[in-house]
């Protein structure tokens, strides 16, 4: 019963944390967007509005697999951008791409304009992670991965990658969807889990009471018959 109560509290606290993160995100998104160059190699707050100007580096595009959207299998497309007036590189989550239903390993390069482009979005320290199935493939241009962080990408590419990811929110004619999950997307699920643990705790208490009464019933009857 105590274990169930502790797990219920843990799930409830997770739901509250998700809602607090969403509130912070909404407040920060009201701020004017900052130039990605202004942060240097520092780590901005999550969901800080940012714009980046620079040139795409399509030779280092990577894909995060197993990211369904609306019941359709797909992946997130990430591509680095070399920032204008800076030698640094920012890794940009450009959007979601549906997977080829006939060949899951077939990868499609989205339209990528040459020259200087401008992209707006919000800061993510890392994208949502999924369960890694088997050994991770080598990180290289065009790799299909389960998870990725900027440290891994910096080491594999040799590029001066910033320690955060720009999650794109500005529209582009590239066929990618920008329907990103929010921090509170799992709050209701966490509260549902909390109620389930509370229900199990209550059942444990009821079963304990029932079996305690049944254990003592023969003793009571024996005492009554002996008297």
Automatic annotation (TrEMBL):
Gene Ontology CC entries for this record: plasma membrane
Domain of life according to the entry: Bacteria
Protein name: SURF1-like protein
Keyword Cell membrane recorded: yes
Organism: Undibacterium luofuense
A Pfam family annotated for this UniProt entry: SURF1
Keywords linked to the UniProt accession: Cell membrane, Membrane, Transmembrane, Transmembrane helix
The family this protein is said to belong to: Belongs to the SURF1 family.
Membrane topology: Multi-pass membrane protein
Compartments where found: Cell membrane
Transmembrane segments: 194-213
Record bears the keyword Transmembrane: yes
């Amino acid at each position: 019963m105590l274990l169930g109560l502790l797990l219920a509290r843990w799930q409830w606290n997770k739901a509250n944390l998700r809602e607090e993160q969403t509130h912070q995100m909404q407040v920060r998104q009201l701020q004017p967007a900052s130039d990605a160059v202004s942060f240097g190699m520092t780590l901005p707050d999550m969901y800080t509005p940012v714009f980046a100007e620079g040139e795409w580096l399509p030779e280092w595009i990577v894909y995060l697999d197993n990211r369904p959207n609306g019941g359709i299998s797909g992946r997130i497309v990430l591509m680095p951008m070399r920032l204008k007036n800076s030698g640094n590189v920012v890794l940009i989550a450009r959007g979601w791409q549906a997977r080829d239903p006939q060949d899951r390993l077939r990868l499609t390069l989205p339209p990528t304009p040459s020259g200087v482009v401008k992209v707006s979005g919000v800061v993510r320290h890392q994208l949502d992670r999924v369960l890694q199935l088997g050994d991770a493939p080598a990180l290289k241009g065009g790799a299909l991965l389960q998870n990725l962080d900027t440290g891994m990408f910096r080491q594999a590419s040799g590029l001066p990658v910033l320690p955060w990811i720009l999650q794109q929110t500005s529209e582009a004619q590239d066929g990618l969807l920008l329907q990103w999950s929010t921090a509170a997307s799992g709050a209701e699920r966490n509260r549902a889990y909390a109620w389930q643990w509370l229900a199990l705790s209550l059942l444990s208490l009821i079963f304990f009471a029932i079996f305690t009464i049944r254990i003592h019933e023969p003793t009571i009857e024996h005492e009554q018959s002996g008297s």
